[in-house]
Amino acid sequence: MTSHDRPPLELWIGVECTLNRVRDRWLNQLHVCGHHERHDDLAMLATLGARRIRYPVLWEHVAPDAPDRHDWTWTDQRLGTLRELGVQPIATLLHHGSGPHYTDLLDPLFPEKLAAYAQEVARRYPWLTAYTPVNEPLTTARFSGLYGVWYPHHTTDASFIRALLNECRGTVLAMRAIREVNPHAELVQTDDLGKAHATPAMQAEADFQNERRWLAYDLLCGRVDDTHPLWSYLLGAGATPEEVLWFAHHPCPPDVIGVDYYVTSERFLDDRRERYRAHHVNATHADVEAIRVYQQPAGIEHLLMETWARYGLPVAITEAHLGSTREEQLRWFETFWKAAEGARARGADIRAVTSWAILGSFDWNTLHTSFNGHYEPGAFDVRGPTPRRTALAGVLRDRASGRTPDHPVLASPGFWERPDRFFYPPVGEAPPQVERGGAARPLLILGGGRLGQAVQRMCMERGLEHRLLRTSELDLADVTAVRSLLDLHQPWAVVNTAGYGWIDRAQQHPGVFWRATAVGLAVLARECATRGVQLLTFSSDQVFGGDRDTPYHERDQAHPLNAYGRANLEAERQVLAFHKDALVVRSSASLFGSVDRRGVLGAALTSLRAGQECQVDGAHRFSPTYLPDLVHTSLDLLIDGERGVWHLANQGASSWADVTRRLAELLNLPGDAIRDTPHETLGWIAPRPQFSVLRSERGLVMPTLESALERYAADAAD
Is the pLDDT of residue 503 over 80? Predict the structure, then answer.
């Protein structure tokens, strides 16, 4: 088949469905993300236009207690709905698991038990056409048998090889059992495919790892015999010649080789351990993500070509996911799609790109060993009453429909392409610079206070083209000036931070603040709407009167006590009246952050470290909010195209006194030097609500206050 005869590149999607065991605890992603209870998710996912979905028919879920007791209720409903929707499932039977409690990866009968379950699945659903009996067998064997991360927590080559042989033999037997029911069933075999790079002293280890990464595919393809580079390693790890050669006599080559690739997949091995931080160093060498130290990682297109050249079998990218900021997620997926197109143009049979973790994933920052609530969104964010579309969903719909996505953030490179990606002095020759067509439209930031400076800094970190204009450079109430500004910079979005937190200043000069805020925002909103420019502006908890002791939600009645709150409330009304797609973010009027050492907490730390008493308010309860969390989340929502009022504050309620005491505890500073002080003594001019805690009914997308304080303390300790 020539490249001209091939069908178009397909979009596939996948639901993160890991159900594995860590010690005696079972961790189930389907429950944590809520998909187990949300049947309506499937109709929502179908709107993306994907041809196939990697979907769980998990052994531990269907037959958790005994191999002859199956509960098909959930699976019947879900697979039936997918069939009705015309989205073809690729059934996953085991996903980073060791199987139900009556087996494990080292069980000699594991292959036969898995095959028996696979045949039950095929008999139940004879119309299923594609299977992944074991997801990422090599990766799972490494983490379960070699690294000790997952059950059964072994750390030897012998256990690694035994687990891998069991998984691969189980795959062969499972496909044989499935094909007794459906002879045309396809094997879509996935694995994390990276590459090791190294200094000369570590090159032998890198060569070994680069050979080992193919081992699951090689076994299934029947390519392992006494001429294979890892033959001696296999036998040295306890495998017998007969069980290894069994695969050569019973080949089960994948119908599609699934390549999974993450930003951590490629590694750099360095014998110069002193160059690296402790968490990147083991007993013999440093092992670092290549993207953070090596100038020229191979990249996904090169690895696709390596896979095609080695096997000559159809290839699909079966996991494309990045747990990062929203624009980086878009750029990452587009990098994969273009790499697949590039490999196809070079003659490789690349079938699809899979947007993985379509509903996001929890706690992969700890390799799924604990549930601390760390969430990475996908095309949908599940932290609200119903899953919410992110900007990635729009990119996927475009690609599924044959359109090229045009989101403004795609005009800038991802962090893996930028020189600021390095954590250590870079090694190797720098790659040639890639020319990009056209300049990226900027994000226009208005206001040079703490919030505006934080937005500027986060834009720099995130590779977002931007311009910052300080309040003194612009009169927002001047229509002509605003028009000229927008015409000059041609932004795709405006972020207004002007006057944020000026509570007492607004009380002293209410007319001036009203003109700059209420009148100025009306002008800005109208002019942005006319040009189709997105608008993000910040309001605050000061729009509420503090007449309750339960958190305020977005639709609660506002009743400000001070001039700052009144001007902000009117600005909200004007913005949403003139620009229906504007995003209004309410947060705490008092923020803490690491842009500088100003603010209540910065001053308190200075006093405590000097051995002095510090005076802070202990009477008012609100939602202390970490500046980086507020800015990152606000920018994500802006990129998603969110609109209307959102409450963004770290989850929790406190006073400045309580927050300061907790911070002192984290930093081992004297908490008894903290004094609850009346606001009159502190010099406050404007009245404040006694209670202004915020909570969102649209989605709890901000981290907890405790998490924020821990990160602030770590930064303050440096």
Answer: yes
**What share of the chain has pLDDT > 90, as a percent?**
87
Q: Report, as an integer, the average pLDDT of 24-29.
A: 92
Residue 218 has what pLDDT? 98
CA 299 to chain centre: 19
Task: Kindly give, in sequence order, each residue whose CB lies less than 8 Å from that of residue 429, ignoring residues fewer than 6 positions away.
Answer: 295, 296
For the chain, the residue count is: 718
What's the confidence (pLDDT) of residue 1? 52
pLDDT surpasses 50 at 595 = no
Residue 134: what are its φ and ψ, rounded to 5°? -130, 115
Burial of 387 (0-12, 13-18, 19+ CB in 10 A): buried
Average pLDDT over residues 658-668: 92
Residue type at 437 in one-letter notation: G
- Find the DSSP H helices in 582-678: 599-609, 627-640, 656-666
The answer, yes or no, to whether residue 3 has pLDDT greater than 60, is no
- pTM across the whole model: 0.95
Q: Specify burial of residue 534 (Cβ count, 10 A radius: 0-12, 13-18, 19+).
A: buried
pLDDT of residue 594: 64
Q: What is the set of domains in the chain, with CATH numbers? A: 10-421 (3.20.20.80), 443-717 (3.40.50.720)
User: What was the pLDDT predicted at 431?
Assistant: 82
Q: Is 11 helix (H, G, I), strand (E, B) or coil?
A: strand
Minimal CA–CA distance to 134: which of 160, 163, 89, 168?
168
In contact, 210 and 196? CB cutoff 8 Å:
yes
**Are the C-beta atoms of residues 395 and 333 closer than 8 Å to each other?**
yes
CB 187 within 8 A of CB 252: yes
Residues 46, 649: Cα–Cα separation, whole Å: 33
The DSSP result for 305-323, as a single string, is HHHHHHH-S-EEEEEE---
Six-digit token string for 628: 């980086």
What separation, in Å, do the N-terminal and C-terminal C-alpha atoms of the chain show? 59
Alpha helices in 237-383 (DSSP H): 241-249, 300-311, 326-345
